[in-house]
Design a protein that fits this description.
The chain is an alpha/beta fold and 397 residues long. It is built from 12 helices and 18 strands. A hairpin with a 2-residue loop joins strand 9 and strand 10.
Amino acid sequence: MNTYDIVVVGGGPIGSYTAHRLASKGIHVAIIEEHDTIGEPLHCAGLVTRRVLDITTCEQTDLVQNKIYGAHIHSPNNTILSIGGEKIHAYVINRQRFDETIARMAQNAGADILTGHKVASARQHDQAMHLSIVHNGQTKTIQSHLIIGADGTRSRIRTLFGFPKPHELLYGIGAELTDTTLDPRFVHIFVGHAIAPGFFAWAIPINSHGTTARIGLCVSKQRTHPLRHYYENLLNHPLLQGATVQKQFGGAIPLGPLKKTTTDAVLLVGDAAAQVKPTSGGGLYPGLLCAAHCAMTAEQAVQHHRFDDHVLKSYHANWTKEIGRELSLGMRFRSIFKRITDDQFNKYLVKLNTRKILDVINTYGDIDYPSRLAFPLLKTAPSLLSLAPTLLKRGHH
């Protein structure tokens, strides 16, 4: 039977990054990935800030496909609010290559990667975790002291060990297009109940000519039509006329981070723990921040040979301290956003379109920390307060 110190379930960037940190410290780690190829299937729009590249120390030259300077936000009646434009706000990365790069870093540090392996069951027995793993119809058992569940939105580890579920799931569909004619410096965001009820749709130019793009949308459960209906609507948008769909992908995004992310001998990280920005659905940055804390706690557990929840729950405290407030404010912004009618969207986008307010947005706007914009924005445009009572009421407790 193969024996490891730690088994990381899930070979996405969060799992691989956690494994890389651990293997670098000489800890014997395996990554178990159910798909045959790391980075497939693609689920993600691949828009990140500089911080993601800095944390992972990935080389920009291999990964960055395009640089984004601003956004055009389309209201339901197609009023457009344009923000940014002066400096680079985000990078479009080749997500598959990004995933592969981090997995390779983990492997080079000494982690074993088992692709095409699926966890069937896991249980604790005689101070060790026994995982039954299925590969090509054959089942084998591997043993470890600790399991790290980095296995995404519908985490098997989360279910097996009875962790709470995320607060909400968003359902998404996306595509890669060629023959687009977009300004390569700007992403497009579309809001409104006809295009993406409960969330938004996007079009992201992925080369410096604007001739290829990733488009997509997410919707909440409370929608009137099937997901395809909204996707077809987006494809038919005048901006995307004449474009050709190269490939499609789908997925779900968990929102509302779990109140508990450890139990005896198990830690959850990334989408499995719903460590995702509720305002944008982005999981890379918060997931990587949390992965660093996860690796640190797991390393200490191995050093002291203590794997009980009493020792592991410092991980929950640490990641909550670093990013918990931002994520819970994000959930509050989200609860307001979900209540905005199309009429209000139309009004607010017009209201925000003044030099003074755009300056505030361009100064404080930060994809990773939306709360840094909220308060300067309310100060500059008090009329937005009609949106904010729920935010402020809860904020005082």
